[in-house]
Amino acid sequence: METNRRDFLKGIGAAATGGALGFPAVVRAQTRKGIPAEPVKIGLLAIRAGVAAPVGAAGQRGVEWWAERVNKAGGILGRKAELVLEEESSPKDTVERFRKLALQTKVDVIVGGISTAVGLALGPVAEELAMLWLSWDATTQKGVEETMPKPKFAFRSVDNEVEAIGGAILTAKYFKGVKTIAGINNDYSYGRDCWDAFQAVLKRYTPDVKPVLDLWPKLGVTDFTSHIAAIQQAKPDLLMTSFWSGDTTILLKQAAAVGLFKSMKGCFTTGGGVHDSLKKSFTPEGLVLGYNSMYFNYAGASALQKQFVREYKAKHGEYPPYECDHGYFTVESYRAGVEKAYKAAGEWPSKEQVAKALEGIQVESLSGKRSWREDHVQMCNFFQGITTHKSEFDFVTIDPVEVLPTTKIMKPSTSTKLYEWINATFPLKS
Amino acid sequence: MLVHLANVLLSGVFHASILFLVAAGLQVVFGVQRIFNLACGSFYALGAYVGVSFVQASVQAGLPPGLFVLALVAGGLCVAVVGPVVERGLLRFVYDRDETFQLLLTFAVVLMLEDVIRMLWGTSPLSTGGLYLLYGQLKVLGVTVPVYNLIVIGASLLIALLIGYMLARTKFGRIIRAAADNREMSEALGVDMRRVYVRVFTLGTLLGTVGGALVIPATAAMTEMGIELIVEAFAVVVIGGLGSMRGAFVGALVVGVLRSIAISTYPELEMLLIYLIVIAVLVLKPRGLFGGAAA
C-alpha cells in the first residue's frame, strides 16, 4: 500500500515526537544559539506513476529512513527534519511543484529528480530561485554535454553514461573474444548515450569489435519477441542493454524462452534496478549485471547498509534497489553541509553557505562514502558483476562484485569532452 | 533466411494475437455503443495483475503449476466484473453527450484504474516467475518457439472464432448487429438496449482482461502497460476500420507482423512504419479496410 501525503507527514511527525520523547537529553543538549526552533523543511520530489514509479518509491523510502534516524538522534543541529512530498512527473508540472515548494511551502532544500528531462528543467529554476536542489538520479546533461557548467544551487547526479562505461570495462575483462555486439536500448537520450559510450569504451579494449544491430524500443514496451527474433538473426557475440525497469525482466524472460543467452554473452548495465524480479528460473548465470550505486548483498557493505537492508526487507518485503542510496545521500549530505557551514557562520547557514559547504563534501551514505564533486556532480562507487545462482534468494545475485569508482569511470569535469576523454583514458592501466 | 522469416512472422503473430484481444474489446464497444473506450487498455492491465495474483494463489493452494493457465483464465473472467460496474456506474450517463465528453470519461477511467492498480499491487513490476518456460519449446519451421506463445496465439484465434460465431449465428449476436446498425429500430422492435449495453460492454471488458491475464506469463505486469497497448490498438482499429471485428483481426495482424518486420530490417522504423500505414489507410480508404461493416 502506498502512503498518502497526510499519513506520510503524520508518520514522520510521529517518528519525530517519538524521538523527542526517547532522547530528551540529546535534544536539549543539541539546541544551539542562532538556530531557529521550527523544523527544517525538506522538499521531496518523487516519481509516483509510470515506469519509474518503483524508482521514485525507493528514493523516497531512503529519505524517510534517514529522517526517522536523524530525528531520533535530535535532528539537524537540534531542528527536526520535516519532509514535504511532491510528485515528479512531466518537466513542466514538476517545475511548478518545485516553485511551490520553494516559494509557498518555503522549504530549506529540495531533493529528488530522477528523469533527466526533468533535471534539465529544474536546474535553471533552482538557480533562478536561489533554491538548493540536490538531485537523486537526474542530470542537467543534454546528451553527453553539460548544460549548466557553473551551477550555484543545483547539484546533480553522475553522468548518464557512467554505467555503460563500467559495463564495457567488465565486458572487455570477462568476455574475451567478443567481436560482434548488438544493443537494445530505450529510444531516448539515456539509451542512446549509453549505447554510444559502451561501444566507444569497448573499442578501446577490442579495436576490431563491430556493432551488428541496434534496437530502440520505446520505454514501457512489454513484448520483445520481435526484437529477440532480430537479435537471433544478427547472431552477435554479445547483447548489451541499459534497460533499468520491468523491461529488463521481460527481455530476460523472453530471451530464456528461446535460449538466447546459450549462444551469446549479455551485458545488462543497469538491470540491477529491478534485481529481485530477475528470477533464477529465467535469468542465466554469467551475464554482466550492474546495480548502480548500491548492491544490497555486497559482502563488504558497511554496518549502516546492512542495517538498512535488513529493516527495508522487514518493512517492504523486498530488498532495496540503488535509488534508496541516492535519496539517503542527498539528505545526509545536506545535513553534513549545514553542520559544516554552521561551524563557520556560527548561526543557521544560508542556502548559499550550505551550497558552498557541499562542494567537495564527503559523507557516509548507505553504500559507503559518497561525495559531491566541486562542480556539483555526485561521486560514488558503481557495483557491477557477473550473475550467479549461488545464493539463498530466488533471483540472481552477482559474484564477483566489481566496485567501479566514478573517479575512474566518469569524466573528470563537466566541461571535459566525453569521447576525447574516453580515447585518452581507456584501456585503463590497472 | 527462411528460418529467420518464419521467426519474424511467428513473433509478429504473437504480438498480433495480444493486440487483437484488446482491439476486439475496443471494436465491439464502439460498434454498438459508439463509445471509443480508451479504458480497454486498463482492463488489459487489470487482467494482467489479477492474473498474477490468481496464479500465485493457485500455486499456494496446491494446484499443479502446469494448470496455471486455468488460474489465468479464471482471473481474467472474474475481474471482468468491473465492466458492468463502469458501464452502469459511469458510461450510461454520457451516451447522449458529446463524443469528446465520452472520450474524457473513459480516459478518467484509465487514470483511476491505474491508481487502483497502484494501491492494490504497488508500483514494482510483477511477474509469474519462470512459469512461462514450464511448457518448454517447440521447433516450428526450424524456429524455436516457446509453447506458451503458441497457446496465446491459439487462444486468441479461438476467441476470434467464438466471437465470429456468436455474431453470425446466435440470437445475441444478431441483436448486437441490429443494435449497431440501427439503434432506434432495434428499440422499436423490443430490444432492451440497456441490457444490450451492459452485456456488450462486459464482453468488451472481458476480451481485455482475459487478454491481459493470458499474456502475463510471457511478460511482466506494469501499471502503464495498458497505455502502451492502447496506442497500438488505435492503429489497429484505424487500419481495420472502426467498429469492425474482422477489421480488428486483420488490423492486428498487419500491425503485429509489420512491426516485427521493421524491427528485423530497419529498427528505427518500428513505430513510424505502422503510422505510415495508418496515414495511407486514412488517405486511401478513410473508413479502414473493413469500415462500415457493423460490429
Give structural notes:
With 430 residues, chain A is an alpha/beta fold. Chain A has two domains: 5-158 and 301-379, Response regulator (Rossmann fold), CATH 3.40.50; 162-292 and 380-425, Response regulator (Rossmann fold), CATH 3.40.50. Chain A is 42% helix and 18% strand. By secondary structure, chain B is mainly alpha-helical. Chain B has one domain: ABC transporter involved in vitamin B12 uptake, BtuC. Chain B is 72% helix and 3% strand. In chain B, strands 1-2 form a two-stranded antiparallel ribbon. Chain B starts with a helix and ends in an 11-residue tail after the last helix. Classes of the chains: A alpha/beta (430), B mainly alpha (295). Chains A and B meet through helix 3, strand 9, helix 8 and helix 9 of A and helix 1, helix 5, strand 2, helix 10 and helix 11 of B.
List the helices and strands and how they pair.
The complex is a heterodimer of chains A (430) and B (295).
Chain A: H1 5-22, H2 24-30, E1 40-47, H3 53-72, E2 81-88, H4 91-104, E3 109-112, H5 116-129, E4 133-134, E5 141-142, E6 145-146, E7 154-155, H6 162-174, E8 180-184, H7 189-205, E9 210-215, H8 225-234, E10 238-241, H9 246-257, E11 265-268, E12 288-290, H10 303-316, H11 323-345, H12 351-358, E13 362-365, E14 368-372, E15 378-379, E16 381-388, E17 397-405, H13 406-409, H14 418-425
Parallel strand pairs in A: 1-2, 1-3, 3-4, 4-7, 8-9, 8-10, 10-11, 11-12
Antiparallel strand pairs in A: 5-6, 12-16, 13-14, 14-15, 16-17
Chain B: H1 2-33, H2 40-60, H3 68-79, H4 82-89, H5 99-121, E1 137-140, E2 143-146, H6 147-169, H7 171-181, H8 183-188, H9 193-215, H10 225-240, H11 245-265, H12 270-284
Antiparallel strand pairs in B: 1-2
Helix pairs in contact in B: 1-6, 1-9, 1-10, 1-11, 2-3, 2-5, 2-9, 2-10, 3-9, 4-9, 6-7, 10-11, 10-12, 11-12
